[in-house]
Amino acid sequence: MREAQFIKKNKDRWQEMQNNPSNHPDETANEFIQLVEDLGYSKTFYPSTGVVKYLNTEATKRYLHIYVNQKHSWKRVVRFFKTDLPLIVGKHHSMLLISFILFLLFVLIGFFSAKGDESFVRMILGDSYVNMTERNIESGRPFGVYDQGNELVSFLELFMNNVSVGLRAFGGGLLLGIPTIFMVVYNGIMVGAFEYMFYSKGLMADSLLTIMIHGTIELSTLVVAATSGLVLAKSWLFPGTLSRKQAFKTGAKEGVIIAMANFPMLCIAAFFEGFVTRHAGMPIWLKLLIIGASLTLMLGYFVVYPIILRRRK
Fold this sequence. Notes:
Keywords: Membrane, Transmembrane, Transmembrane helix. It holds the Pfam family SpoIIM. The chain crosses the membrane at residues 95-114, 174-199, 211-233, 254-272, 284-308. This protein is mostly helical. The protein has 2 domains: 3-77; 92-312, no CATH class. 84% of the residues lie in helices and 0% in strands. The chain contains 11 helices and no strands. The chain has helices spanning 3-19, 25-45, 50-91, 93-116, 119-125, 127-138, 151-171, 178-199, 204-237, 244-276, 284-312. Helix 4 crosses helix 9 (204-237), helix 7 crosses helix 8 (178-199) and helix 7 packs antiparallel against helix 10 (244-276). The longest helix is centred in the N-terminal third of the chain and has 42 residues, at 50-91. It starts with a helix and ends with a helix.
């Protein structure tokens, strides 16, 4: 094909790209690919001509646009976790506090209910789980339930289960927040009954030191997940000065953002439970270090940092 024919065939498409460049990343990438193909053809058959220079310039523009977008997208991700998300969490600290108090209250209720009625633990945790735990205690492996199965499989199963619980807690906000509150109540009672089971065997300290290796983050994420559901419920139950529709949109958006904050934490909690908690015989100082670091992470990111950030703003 002669150069004139090549230019005539593609001129309109090139001018359209030049005059109306796309801002959509996929379309920009498409334009870049087409221009590079045309540039390769022209370099082969019409080297050192104006069309090569023109196509090279247009292709370079698309490449730089894609590169800048990639840089900006990473900046947006960093900004989201560094600024946007903590500010939204800080905005709803009252809901976070309510979730925490509600959970802690029912942990205590579960503990003292089990203390007052020995059958309560079996009613909450089930006979099979209690029997298995008692056998493990008798054999000198009170936390043997955590060293069963493959580490990676356990990690994946635990992560998916934790994500499911978190999403259900958020989704419960659509039903006046009742399912969300019920989930907090049930899990709080279950934790309280669980801890009493070890307390009654004289293993309370060992239980806390072992289970809180993953439980510090896992239970904290339950409180955060409940917060996301309560934010959603509050938005359309108490819209304030906004229309109910607008308040619901805002609450749904902010609830989703809070729920998203849980995903990295759920991954860490599942990792600890799948890979670390099973080593119940590790030194006490190491257990305390992991628990302390986990507590610092959750309190620092969800409580202290949002307060500091809001004061700066």
